[in-house]
Specification:
alpha+beta; Glutaredoxin; Glutathione S-transferase Yfyf (Class Pi), Chain A, domain 2; 2 domains; four-stranded mixed sheet; 7% strand; globular; binds glutathione; GST_superfamily; Glutathione_S-Trfase; Glutathione-S-Trfase_C-like; glutathione transferase activity; Glutathione S-transferase
């Protein structure tokens, strides 16, 4: 009996929990849905959406933010110091704000979606990436919550890798070239031994963009 992560067969909102469990050496299985199979599972999910973490005893936990924090606490990737934890949460919520900008674009017709995503990148999204660049640029050799890797470093890594994976058709895969601090941080986390090992085993599809820079 092990944990199960219910999601689609893509990185998306489940990737950070997968990384955390993998780095922490905590066994888990992926339960994948397709657009054809999800409607049957949807009513069984606590809030009708995934990701959902299933505990070995069958309990279910929804919301990626809750799943990431719970698994990070199990894996020693959630800071014990209250201020360090608040710094990690602060950066995590900045990413949530950034990702929320794109939510209304996903179901637009292709051309409108591309245009809307380009407008986000030139406007509010640029502001958020600027704030994140400043935050990461001031870390030196460290991590967001101090001198130790925490869940939020993985959230930043996963968000930035997804952003330039080609999944966002309005976002150029070269975007991080405009943000050297983001590019350097993404690459630094991609080279963390546990992260690198995960993508050596899981490199299919969008995950090609999660590997270290060549
Ligand atoms: N705030 C939730 C959002 C979850 C969410 O939007 N899940 C999407 C996939 S990324 C989903 O389940 N979509 C299918 C549906 O809503 O029927 C979280 O972070 O877990």
């Amino acid at each position: 009996m092990s944990y199960k992560i219910h999601y689609f067969p893509v990185p998306g909102r489940a990737e950070v929990a997968r990384l955390i469990l993998s780095i922490g050496g905590i066994p888990y299985e992926d339960v994948h849905y397709t657009h054809a199979t999800f409607p049957e599972a949807k009513p069984k999910m606590p809030f009708g959406q995934v990701p959902v973490l299933e505990f070995p005893d069958g309990k279910l936990l929804a919301q990626s933010g809750a799943i990431n924090r719970y698994t990070a606490k199990l894996a020693g990737l959630y800071p014990e110091d209250p201020l360090k934890a608040a710094r990690a949460d602060e950066a995590d919520f900045l990413l949530v704000d950034f990702m929320d900008l794109f939510s209304p674009t996903w179901f637009l017709p292709r051309e409108e979606k591309i245009k809307a995503q380009q407008e986000i990148l030139a406007g509010k999204g640029k502001d958020k990436l600027g704030f994140l660049s400043k935050l990461l640029g001031n870390l030196g050799e460290g991590y967001v919550a101090g001198d130790k890797l925490s869940f939020v470093d993985l959230t930043i890594f996963s968000t930035l890798s997804s952003l330039v994976s080609g999944m966002y058709e309005g976002v150029p895969t070269t975007l991080l070239g405009e943000y050297p601090a983001l590019k350097a941080f993404r690459n630094k986390i991609a080279n963390e031994p546990g992260v690198k090992a995960f993508y050596e085993k899981n490199s299919e599809g969008l995950r090609a963009a999660f590997k270290p820079d060549v």
